[in-house]
Fold each of these.
Amino acid sequence: MADFLLGAAGFVVAMVAVGLVRILRGPSDAERIMAAQLLGTGGVAALLLLAKAMSVPAAVEVALILALLAALVTVAFVKGAGRSRGDRA
Amino acid sequence: MSLALGLLTVLTVSAGAFFFMAGTVGLLRFPDTLSRLHALSKADNLGLGLVVLGLLLQAEGLLAGLKLVAVWFLALLAGATVAQLIAHTARPGDPPM
């Protein structure tokens, strides 16, 4: 079971890393922040899987904090994007 | 019993990993911002949800299980809020927040 969970964690991280290509390609900032959001959620899933696979219960707490901070990143992005668009108008 | 639980865990975690793959493929292949956002929401909610469900079957004790559910609940709330905010910036005519 631990081997399977470890493999699943590696698979999720690999998939999310492929998704980061969207940050390079854009075209708009909304796409870039979406890739970062996917990285946050994938990181949470990988941490939860690792916590079980390697018997490190504290990793669940790290996942909780990562989920919280990933949400704040996007909220900060939207506030900043709105402000810069308002400046240009 | 524990074999059946293990089998269910393998099934649900695999399904969750599949949804993460679908989210990545959608993010890379879909044609516009809003449909990419749709793919991202699926990965966020269903992918993480199925992974948490699979780990819940293996959880030791009530507190550990509740903590897993709390992580998913937080991700659900954050995902719903964030999807609305990103969609708002993606629409060209809308006033800034």
Amino acid sequence: MNLLSLLLRTRGRKRLHWTDVLSYLYLLVGFFTLFGPVLWLLMSSFKTEAAMGLYPPTFLPYSQKTVEVAGHAQALPLFLVNQDGQSPRPLAQVSRMGIMATMVDPVHPEVTLQVPIQQRTPITELAFAWGNYADLFHKFTFGRYLWNSVFITVVATLLTLLFNSMTAFALSKYQFKGRKAVFLLIISTLMIPPTIILVPVFLVINGVGLLNSLWGVILPAVATPTGVFLLRQYMLTIPDELLEAARMDHASEWRIYWRIVLPLSAPALAVLAIFSVMWRWNDFLLPLIVLSRSEFFTLQLALNAFQGELNTQWHYLLAMTVITLLPVTLVFAFLQRHITTGIASAGVK
Amino acid sequence: MTVSILKLHAVEKSFDQTAVIHGVDLEVEPGEFVVLVGPSGCGKSTLLRMIAGLDTPTAGDIWINGQRVNEVSAADRGCAMVFQSYALYPHMSVYANMAFGLENIGESKVEIERKVREAAAILKLDTLLDRRPTQLSGGQRQRVAIGRAIVRDPQLFLFDEPLSNLDAELRVSMRAELRELHRRLGSTMIYVTHDQVEAMSMADKIVVLRAGHIEQVGTPQMLYTQPANTFVAGFIGSPRMNFIPASSWPDATMQASNWPAGTQTLGVRPEHWDKSPSEQGWAMTVQSVEYLGSQQLVQGRLTCQIRIEVLLDGTQTVQVGEHLCLQIKPGHAHAFDAQGQRLESALA
């Protein structure tokens, strides 16, 4: 079934059933509610600072046309002037004082006219301000922040997958005294609110000397009880006979873990990877307390720092936000297939 | 005197407080095909796992090739096991499944390739080497499991009910293939099953187990003709042997001194009854008839109300409600005492 026929499915055969109308109405409302702000964000990130302040606000990024006029160093904004008795014509504005604007005809720049501002409307064109994005990398150390975020996310996710899967393997496939107690202990840490342990965590990180270091953000939260629980439950479904067969095949315990249990746990690992990526990328609190030097800032901290006390450069802020959103969206879109197929196949097995 | 390849001495196994295996002694000669057979829960799989090294006995010794292996790990015992569910690695190809064991001991790639292809040729798996287990049929998967065992060139092959997941027709053909494999490789094979037909058709030696005890060890012929007790007698052979308690024998003539002293139960297999030429014999009222072609399975009641099954020739079909007079084929009656143990008799 192709996408189009899926999207346009209706209950009624030829005419639309009333439930169809309601369903689609509901879906459309939901679609606009959820995607509206995101699309607005995307479009606004391409507006220049001036265009951002336009009232009434426009969806697409329009900015005023400018024209080069002989005798003037900078390009002059173009307006459509509607003077009494004359057909509307484009004039370039030289300056404005109060309600009167001094304008010239671009073709005949010597002649200046005084035009009241009510009689003129700006001529706008669709203009994507790519400069918003380019400036981020040139004027600001945005590349640095991006790198910090990517480094933390990727390394933390890999370490999380590694350590959580090792714990889950031990807890699911080995019989030892205190097995249940250890598991309950790990799960019970979920009951502890993060804010309570914030200060102790800071003191520990400081004591170890990892303040103002990316590793100080990565290491403290690598072992997650959610991850251990998720992977353990999944590994319990791997038949013990497979491990016994591997043991009879001379496989060491590490080989059993690395070559048999881990590949078979791929769907659960994909789920944990998504959780980890999304959490680490958006994490604000831990980086905030660990990192105080701006060269180590992550994107989230940078976005926060970018909002000045008196003045915010919205066009840069919006552009940064869009870039911050992109990687997580891509990762989720890519790994989502693994989640759904993983859950389905685990049930059928 | 050849050293037996496997020797179990007073092996016991308990799980927590429940004793599952009670003092088992067994010896297996090199090249034998031994079948451990018994009803569900008799401990045959547990015994196999202890031989393999996957479980440790709570008491007793296990000797493989003259060496005590109680503390030796499963991988180092020189055994290869074929599991009931095959236990193939689902994310690896057939080739990788068979090569895994050899990779773990550090064999060279060339050697691995040679051995895997050799095993694949024996089991006709050559064309399937690149497939995943999920793309194979049940019979093919089972052959891959056997191939994985062959490739390791073990001293002992251990089979844990390998045919129970296959359909009836495939089971019959696989039985023949396994026999052929045994003849070809000449290695010792220990096979666990609950199906006495498999045991009878495949084994050099059968070990009948019940509730953790060995009831009898012997060749199929021995178990068929001289069962040690009523359990073995009733377990081996299909249709099941008829047991007639002494108290319900029809008349004094039957209770002749032919039977050994202390006989409490008479056992006769359905195939060892004939229609009596005279009116002397066991009177039976027919209750149902199953026509099997060359034979018919007749179920009915004796005058003492004991139900028996009789396998008669199929040429003259018997009707329900008919009265038959039967006699036992000479030399085919078994006498058992009050405890169900076999009594030797020279008899009728």
